């Protein structure tokens, strides 16, 4: 079968076959990997609507399509930035200076929300123009998720804050565990990774829980005990599983990935034999970044989400420090960012299945992708 995945088209998403005119785009064939991704593509397109994804009807040009890159910046250097890679030629430019230590970004409707931790603010940026709409002061904001009409932010005051996306103001907050990091939504709930790292690195007292929140009114539903220093979460809504990753503390407490059955309060999290700092789900499979699947190797992995069988996936020998990961929600291309030692400028690599098809130089410590399509 010789039809590329990218021929699928959703009018409400206004996807026009982004990669069709790319000089680097290769003719793709369905294989065992892309067949598994097809289900995820159809689900994505079927879910598109003006209610879910409110946006005007711009007249796109070749320069419109691309990827926003959130660059964390060098700590203390005030050089965090939001950049943009144009798909037509993979040209990169910085669009917005952000301050000190940008940490996370999400898109909701016509805006993007960006946490800039050490500058103590959430920056709201227009999705279409890349211009700053508003800055919301907040003490050390970390990660973001949206649910309903609100955006939720974790911060190092041990709280989750609700931002009303109409007024662009903080309207509610609740105390969770210590030093909360990533927050995700799944099946009408919010899940918060509590690391306890602020205390843990000084006195060894790390948090080891995930808080489960009801969004409205904002309240704690329950707390799940996992392991010390939970930092990242990935929601697998199709299988009612939450994947929680713990960051390494020392040689005796390495990074580990845990699978949590969110439908059972009595079932203990399943501990895997490796950690995964980033995880991106597409259909029945997930791509992962791991630094301990094999000793002293930073690898790109592929996991079957049905049986959790995991294998090395992409030859990433040229990527020094894989730091960001995303899969294009329509095309299925895999985007990986290299932090390049965290002191030099980073680089972005694009893979079609396991084949490297493009790359682009970006700014310091690229951490998050948001696709514009």
Topology readout:
Elements: H1 32-46, E1 66-71, E2 80-86, E3 92-99, E4 102-108, E5 111-116, E6 121-126, E7 132-137, E8 141-147, E9 150-155, E10 159-164, E11 169-175, E12 180-186, E13 189-194, H2 197-203, E14 209-215, E15 218-225, E16 230-236, E17 241-246, E18 256-261, E19 270-271, E20 278-282, E21 285-290, E22 299-304, E23 310-314, E24 322-327, E25 334-338, E26 345-352, E27 355-364, E28 366-372
Antiparallel strand pairs: 1-2, 1-28, 2-3, 4-5, 5-6, 6-7, 8-9, 9-10, 10-11, 12-13, 13-14, 14-15, 16-17, 17-18, 18-19, 20-21, 21-22, 22-23, 24-25, 25-26, 26-27
Strand order of the largest sheet: 3-2-1-28
Assembly state here? Answer: single chain
Helix content percent band = under 10%
DSSP strand content: over 45%
N→C terminal distance:
25 Å
| Overall 3D form | globular
Quick tags:
mainly beta; 373 residues; four-stranded antiparallel beta sheet; 48% strand; globular
Question: What features would you describe in this structure?
Answer:
Helix content is 6%, strand content 48%. It is built from two helices and 28 strands. The protein has helices spanning 32-46, 197-203, and strands at 66-71, 80-86, 92-99, 102-108, 111-116, 121-126, 132-137, 141-147, 150-155, 159-164, 169-175, 180-186, 189-194, 209-215, 218-225, 230-236, 241-246, 256-261, 270-271, 278-282, 285-290, 299-304, 310-314, 322-327, 334-338, 345-352, 355-364, 366-372. The strands form seven sheets. A four-stranded antiparallel beta sheet has the order 3-2-1-28, with no helix packed on it. The protein has a four-stranded antiparallel beta sheet with strand order 4-5-6-7, with no helix packed on it. The longest helix is centred in the first third of the chain and has 15 residues, at 32-46. 42% of the residues are buried. The model is unreliable at 1-54 (pLDDT under 50).
């Amino acid at each position: 079968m010789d039809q590329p995945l990218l021929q699928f088209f959703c009018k409400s998403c206004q996807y026009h076959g982004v990669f069709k005119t790319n000089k680097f785009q290769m003719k793709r064939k369905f294989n065992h990997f892309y067949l598994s991704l097809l289900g995820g593509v159809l689900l994505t397109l079927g879910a598109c609507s003006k209610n879910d994804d409110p946006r005007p009807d711009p007249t796109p040009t070749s320069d419109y399509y691309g990827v926003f890159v959130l660059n964390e910046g060098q700590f203390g250097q005030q050089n965090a930035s939001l950049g943009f890679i144009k798909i037509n030629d993979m040209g990169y430019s910085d669009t917005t200076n952000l301050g000190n230590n940008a940490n996370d970004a999400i898109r909701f409707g016509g805006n993007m929300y960006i946490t800039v931790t050490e500058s103590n603010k959430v920056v709201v940026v227009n999705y279409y123009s890349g211009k700053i709409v508003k800055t919301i002061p907040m003490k050390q904001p970390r990660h973001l998720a949206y649910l309903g009409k609100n955006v939720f932010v974790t911060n190092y005051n041990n709280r989750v804050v609700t931002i009303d996306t109409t007024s662009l103001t903080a309207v509610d907050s609740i105390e969770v565990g210590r030093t909360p990091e990533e927050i995700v939504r799944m099946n009408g709930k919010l899940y918060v990774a509590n690391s306890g790292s602020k205390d843990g690195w000084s006195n060894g007292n790390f948090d080891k829980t995930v808080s489960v929140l009801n969004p409205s009114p904002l309240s704690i539903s329950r707390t799940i005990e996992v392991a010390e220093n939970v930092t990242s979460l990935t929601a697998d809504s199709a299988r009612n599983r939450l994947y929680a990753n713990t960051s390494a503390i020392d040689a005796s407490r390495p990074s580990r990935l845990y699978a949590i059955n969110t439908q059972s309060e009595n079932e203990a999290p399943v501990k895997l034999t490796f950690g995964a700092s980033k995880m991106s789900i597409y259909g029945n499979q997930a791509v992962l970044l791991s630094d301990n699947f094999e000793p002293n190797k930073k690898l790109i992995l592929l996991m079957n989400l049905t049986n959790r069988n995991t294998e090395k996936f992409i030859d990433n020998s040229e990527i020094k420090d894989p730091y960001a990961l995303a899969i294009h929600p329509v095309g299925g291309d895999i985007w990986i960012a290299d932090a390049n030692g965290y002191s030099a400028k980073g680089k972005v690599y694009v893979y079609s299945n396991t084949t490297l098809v493009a790359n682009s130089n970006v700014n310091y410590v690229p951490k998050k992708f948001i696709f514009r399509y």
